[in-house]
Design brief:
Blueprint: E1 8-12, E2 19-28, E3 37-41, E4 47-50, E5 56-59, H1 77-86, H2 95-108, H3 113-120, H4 124-132, H5 139-149, H6 153-157, E6 174-178, H7 181-188, E7 191-199, E8 205-215, E9 218-223, E10 236-245, E11 250-262, H8 266-275, E12 288-292, E13 296-304
Antiparallel strand pairs: 1-2, 1-5, 2-3, 3-4, 6-13, 7-8, 7-10, 8-9, 9-12, 10-11, 11-12, 11-13
Amino acid sequence: MRAHLGDQLVIESQKTGATRRDGEIVGLHHEDGTPPYDVRWSDTEEVTLVFPGPDAHIRHVEHGQPGTTRGSSQPDRGEAEAVSAVAPSAGTPNPGDIGRRVAVERRRHGLSREETARRARISPDYLAYLEEHPADPTVATLLSLAAALGTTAAALRGAGVDLPPGQGHALLHPQLRDLSPEECRRLLSTHGVGRIAVSTPDGRPAVVPVNYEVVDDVIVFRTAPDSVPAAAVGTEVAFEIDHVDEAMSQGWSVLVVGPANVVTEPDAVRGLAQRAHTEPWAGGAREMWVSIRPTRLTGRRIAPADQ
């Protein structure tokens, strides 16, 4: 068995083949990649020294496929390189995407480039280059950045972008608590992507994502008159935002309930267009502004019990 930094160690049931535990290899003790390994387990985020048994195999980061062997039957380095050269992964990330994900995570945590570089033990100049230009950082650099930003190397590579969030393991001792209105307003922040729940003209319920802004505690978004979100006008609607921290198996959600109305006053429309942080991601002509004035604001957070 041979592994590289960033590979995944998977422990399966020998009877059913179901995954019992998995984690990211964050430390090697031999240059040839043979055991033991330091593994950060996905269910606890704890790092332990592991001597893999016959129920373990390696899932390699480089080509995204499970290790083809278990125990001592791992193919040698030459075979692995030949397979990689013939059949590269279709999911290989655009190097520029890695830098953008690093920048987003850094800003989400309120960290400067200098502080992030210090935590990751890399040069601030290299971090600036990584965020602003296409680059292909080493696995070791990705692991250091992931640790500094509280995420995983796989997440920075864009693994799972076509999968719904929340497929990780639940926390061992989760705590579900209600958020105060002040916390909800802070999480709503100034703008982002949320989901609006409406009843369409044919009487069917629908939930669709929209790019939203918050102006004077009122939620506003742009849409087209004949779109599904436009069905919100003149009714009481639900609007929801959330965030799932896949690496830490925790997250939060905020729910707003209130009446939706069209913004018609020309100066108000002009002001909203000027203050908008982004164009609607869906594109097209979307010049109809809809406002939701909250009458009920609630939220919940899942976190470790000791937080």
